[in-house]
Amino acid sequence: MPKIDCEELIWTSLGGEDLASRKRMFEVLKNYIEAGKEEDYLICNSAYDLEPGAFTLVPNILPIGPLLASNRRGNSAGSFWLEDSTCLKWLDQQQPNSVIYVAFGSVTVLDKTQFQELALGLELSNRPFLWVVRPDMTDEPNEAYPEGFQDRVAGYSRMVGWAPQQRVLSHPSTACFFSHCGWNSTLEGVSNGVPFLCWPYNADQFTNESYICDVWKVGLKFNKNENGIITREEIKSKVDQVLGDESFKARALELQESALKSVKEGGQSHRNFKNFIEWIKA
To answer: Which residue of 104, 201, 248, 275 has the lowest C-beta tally within 10 Å?
Structure first.
């Protein structure tokens, strides 16, 4: 087996075009890895079958997931924004497996040109969509939607500032997850058996995109044009591909079954957690 250069692996996994940000994140992650080598065990929110290569490379990391907020007793708390749960009633009115859920997490920011191409791509797809548009999602404070867009899509879309994501992903009307590929969002999508459309923004999101598209094969990447823009035509094309090919959904359901099996009694994540507790007691 060839020797793995961990520093090169970290650097290439970060992606993005902001060199200064990549350098800062590189140093942070490198320090984490060096510190982790000194620990007896580290636990993480993942499952062995999702990324066996990573756990083989660093055997003192124990996956005990996927851990989802929806599995906790009582109400979950800690959202960055106020959830608009009325979107669930809107989902109730849609056809099964028909809605594109679009959510880019709490920090992704798009310039106005890219934001408008995204909006027009969703319109061009001519499919129902639920789009989480945070108040700070664009880099301009003024109204960023294309002129007339909201009126044109009003009959088959819903835009909200924040959504109860896990309830949306588990809803029978949700067909796919248009995501920034943050790890929590990735696990939530996997655990609900939905295909992905991947739009990573920074850090590990590019590595997660590679898992989704190249390893698990439950989603598709977007290609940028010569100006660095993901065009409306590219968006429509990838939406049509991921929703028109039933194999994406089939693989997503297989991955869901494998991931959820790991946290059940006797599953590998469940055993890892029990063994970790016993190690603490010893």
So the answer is: 275
